[in-house]
Amino acid sequence: MKTQELFSILEQHQDKSLLFEYAPNSFAGANYHITEVKHIKIDAVDCGSQMDSWNETIIQLWESPLEIHKTKYMSVLKALGILKKVGKMKSYDLDAEVKFEYSNTSFHTAQLFVNEFKIEDNKLVIQLRVEKTDCKAKELCGVPETIVNTLEKTKEKVEACCTPDGNCC
After folding, report:
1. How far, in Å, CA of 122 to CA of 125, rounded?
2. Residues 146 and 84 reside in one and the same domain
3. How do beta strands 51-63 and 97-104 pair?
4. pLDDT by residue (tens digit) across 90-116?
5. What is the pTM of this model?
6. Helices H, strands E: what count in the chain?
7. How many CB atoms are closer than 10 A to CB 28?
8. Which 3 state secondary structure label does DSSP give 77?
9. Could you count the other beta carbons within 10 Å of the beta carbon of residue 15?
10. What percent of the chain has pLDDT over 90?
11. Which domain holds residue 105?
């Protein structure tokens, strides 16, 4: 989800409580805070020696141990106020992918993609998901999208790709 799309959804649902589902049926506690907003510029080189760059907005969520028994979730209006204040200090790239950085005692620290959102009663639920890593240079490096080749054919392509004169790292 792009940053602009998130802001648009928040604008439309300011009267609701804001919940984050970081895994199926697992939610950030009502004691969460928005503790940091990162405006990240990524400059990357993939394994096919192709350069790429993009921006990301990363919103960090943290559960306060001092408010562990809190049951009322942050309102969308309050979260939007925090995000707008940040935007006045450091402009957003509204086309940037937005992610949420989160962890708790039973969930590892991760940057989670916005998978979907839903409205339940008086709640806006942002559904977050882990995305798997992927090879961006599959075609260039001869990595099959699906394993339809025999193991021997795949091995030959990988060996050719990984030679010192090959195109892949």
Report:
1. 10
2. no
3. parallel
4. 999 999 999 999 999 999 999 999 999
5. 0.85
6. 4, 7
7. 24
8. helix
9. 10
10. 75
11. 3-129
Do 86 and 139 sit in the same domain of this protein? Answer: no
Q: Percent of the chain scored above 70 by pLDDT?
A: 85
Average pLDDT over residues 28-50: 95
Same domain, 146 and 66: no
Same domain? 84 vs 41: yes
Q: How many domains does the chain divide into?
A: 2
- Distance (Å, whole) CA 147 – CA 17: 45
46 and 63 fall within a common domain: yes
136-163: pLDDT as tens digits: 888 887 777 664 444 555 555 555 556 6
Query: 125 with 50, same domain?
Result: yes
DSSP label at residue 67 = G
Segment holding 131, helix H or strand E: none
CB 98 within 8 A of CB 111: no
